[in-house]
Amino acid sequence: MIKPTALKRGHYECKSLDDTLPVLTDLLAFEVVRQGSGQAAVKHPNTDWELVVHEGAPEAVDKPHLHHYGVRVETLDEVNAAYEYLQSQKERYKLMRVSRPHENHFAHSVYFREPGGNDWEIEYYDHEAVVRGQRNAINPWREKMSEERFPGRGYLPQALSHGTRECDDKEVSARFYSEVLGLEIAGGGRSSVYIKHYETPWYVVVLPGRTRHYVSELNRFTLQVETEQEVVEAHRAFRTSGKDIGIDEVQDLQYDNGEVSFVFSDLDRNWWDICAAR
Ligand SMILES: [Fe+2]
């Protein structure tokens, strides 16, 4: 089992950075922290979970709905305000669709699809969810962001709260996440499982897809470990006996940007990478 020190990044494929980055900064309150050729890293000021946005190609496939990410707002009114604001900005930001606000197990959300082919959720959790023991419903921020940071929209994304993935069998996948990837099983519903790093609030919702969709490794999650040696050892173990523990494909070790890492896919053909600073 690996011992991750963080669920450090999400990687996300879009069609054009010029179209997708303004959606992330202007509609979801992210900040661009790095930009290079064909990729940019963005971060919400309240969440140390970076999103690396890759410019795939104009023909990059649209991601299934269960590959969305979500931000959290503090009040129900903000979900309704977000719907109104997104509707008013649909053409300007080339949004493909904006769903009406709806409620599901104490979560109120609007969903929209950005021009890069990815769905986003703006969600609010009723306090009743916390009362009933749903840990993911606890506000994932320590300090609220002030309205001056994101004025004039009527809503204020306070944190990047979650990502989502499809699986085949949630029991089998949950065992893999905890026993192989060293992640915490942080709850879930009848068909879903929530996974996260033990020390941080952001989480990934994994759900059995009625029809499974498979995406490229440009859509993945990054686990950080303490030492370079742990990356090299995990790589060796996954290459030699990965099939026995639910590892599918294992790519070569990479050394760049002061990190060693490798990309692999799991039993559901979802993608991950493990990294450490050099
Ligand atoms: Fe969601």
Query: Whole-Å distance between the termini?
Result: 21 Å
Shape field: globular
Beta-strand percent range: 35-45%
Q: How many separate structural domains?
A: 2
Small-molecule binders: fe (ii) ion
- Give the strand tally: 18
- Please name the fourth-level CATH homologous superfamily of the largest domain: 2,3-Dihydroxybiphenyl 1,2-Dioxygenase, domain 1
Q: How many strands, which pairing sense, and closed or not: the largest β-sheet?
A: 9 strands, mixed
* Average predicted local confidence, pLDDT: 96
Structural class determined from secondary elements: alpha+beta
CATH architecture of the largest domain, please? Roll
Poorly predicted residue ranges: none
Q: Which CATH top level class of the largest domain fits? A: Alpha Beta
- CATH topology of the largest domain, what is it called? 2,3-Dihydroxybiphenyl 1,2-Dioxygenase, domain 1
Order of helix and strand elements from N to C terminus: EHEEEEHEEEEHEHEEEEHEEEE
Number of helices: 5
Q: Kindly provide the radius of gyration, computed on alpha-carbon positions and rounded to a whole number of angstroms.
A: 18 Å
Helix percentage: 10-25%
